[in-house]
Specification:
The chain has 277 residues and is an alpha+beta fold. The protein is 31% helix and 33% strand. The protein folds into 2 domains: 103 residues, 2-Layer Sandwich (D-amino Acid Aminotransferase, Chain A, domain 1); 152 residues, D-amino Acid Aminotransferase, Chain A, domain 2 (Alpha-Beta Barrel), CATH 3.20.10. Strands 7, 8, 9, 10, 11, 12, 13, 14, 15 and 16 form a 10-stranded mixed β-sheet that branches. A 6-stranded antiparallel β-sheet has the order 2-1-6-5-3-4.
C-alpha cells in the first residue's frame, strides 16, 4: 500500500508523481521522521518539529539531509499542489547504506470526529517499549504488531507498558492521567516528548494547573478520574475505557486544554506565515 497521499511528493528536493512513490525509501534501512499537521495549507508548530528532527538525527549520529529553509520551501511548494488543505505531512530522512534520501509527502489524515471528542475512544494496554524513546525513528515491526492488535480489539490507541508494569506513552501519542485537579504524565526521558504534549505542559504552567511527571502503574489506573492522549492528529482526546477500566469523559478541563491548544496552534501558523525564507 502506497502511504503517500495526494498527487505529488518531494524526493531530495525534486517534485515527483505520487504514482511512483516507493515505500522502500521509507521502510528499508533506518528512517528518522516527523509528522506535521497542516491546517489551511500551513504547517502547525513547524519550528518545534524541525528542532525535534534535528535532535533525533543527532541522537542517532546521522547527518541532516535537508535544512530548515530547504524543508520549508519544499512544504510550501507541495502545499500548492494539493487542493485539500487539512492534511498531515510527513518528512523522512532515510539512511540505507550509502543511499541517503529525504522525502516530503502527505499522508492520509485520520482525525477524531466530534462524537469521539465528546464520547471518548477506547484504549488497550500493550507490553512494549521503544528503543531510544526520545528519538522519532520508524520501528516498522512494533508499529505493525500494535496496528493488528488495535484492529482486533476495535481500539483507537495502545498504551505501552514497560517491564515495571508502568504506562509510559501511547503507540502514537503521549498520555495524561487526571486525578481531581492534578495531571500525571510520564517523565521526559522515558518517552518521545510530543509537540502537542510540550504545549499542553506550557498551558498548564500558564494556567496554574498542577502537573506531576511520573509513570502510572497499571494496577493504579482505577484511582484516576480520567485519561487522555495528546498528539498531532487527535490534539487532546479522552478515553472512555482502557482495557476494561472505564473513565469519565465529560471533563471541562480536558475540553479547555484542547481549546487553548488550538489557540497555540493558530499562533504558530501565523509565525510560519510571517517568516522570510
Amino acid at each position: 500500500m502506497n502511504e503517500c497521499y495526494g498527487k505529488k511528493y518531494i524526493l531530495n528536493g525534486k517534485t515527483e508523481n505520487s504514482d511512483f512513490f516507493d515505500n522502500s525509501l521509507v521502510y528499508d534501512g533506518d528512517s528518522i521522521y516527523e509528522v506535521i499537521r497542516m491546517i489551511k495549507g500551513i504547517p502547525v508548530f513547524f519550528h518545534d518539529h524541525m528542532e525535534r528532527l534535528a535532535q533525533s538525527v543527532k541522537m542517532q549520529m546521522k547527518d541532516m539531509l535537508a535544512d530548515y529553509h530547504t524543508l520549508k520551501k519544499d512544504i510550501m511548494h507541495l502545499a500548492k499542489s494539493e487542493k485539500k488543505k487539512e492534511l498531515n505531512l510527513k518528512i523522512v530522512f532515510n539512511y540505507n547504506g550509502d543511499k541517503l534520501n529525504y522525502l516530503v509527502y502527505f499522508i492520509e489524515p485520520v482525525y477524531p470526529t466530534e462524537k469521539q471528542y465528546l464520547d471518548g475512544v477506547k484504549a488497550i494496554l500493550v507490553n512494549a517499549e521503544r528503543k531510544d524513546p526520545e528519538a522519532k525513528v520508524i520501528n516498522h515491526k512494533l508499529r505493525s504488531s500494535i496496528f493488528h492488535k488495535l484492529i482486533i480489539e476495535g481500539a483507537y490507541e495502545a498504551l505501552l507498558v514497560n517491564e515495571k508494569e508502568e504506562i509510559t506513552e501511547g503507540s502514537r501519542s503521549n498520555i495524561f492521567f487526571l486525578k481531581d485537579d492534578t495531571l500525571v504524565t510520564a517523565p521526559d526521558g522515558l518517552i518521545l516528548n510530543g509537540i502537542t504534549r510540550k504545549y499542553i505542559l506550557d498551558i498548564c504552567k500558564e494556567n496554574n494547573i498542577s502537573i506531576r511527571q511520573e509513570c502510572v502503574h497499571v494496577d493504579e489506573i482505577t484511582a484516576y478520574d480520567a485519561v487522555f492522549m495528546t498528539g498531532t492528529s487527535p490534539m487532546v482526546l479522552p478515553f472512555y475505557v482502557v482495557d476494561t477500566t472505564p473513565f469519565k469523559v465529560n471533563i471541562p478541563l480536558i475540553s479547555e486544554l484542547r481549546r487553548l491548544y488550538v489557540v497555540k496552534a493558530e499562533e504558530s501558523m501565523e509565525m510560519f506565515r510571517s517568516e522570510r525564507i
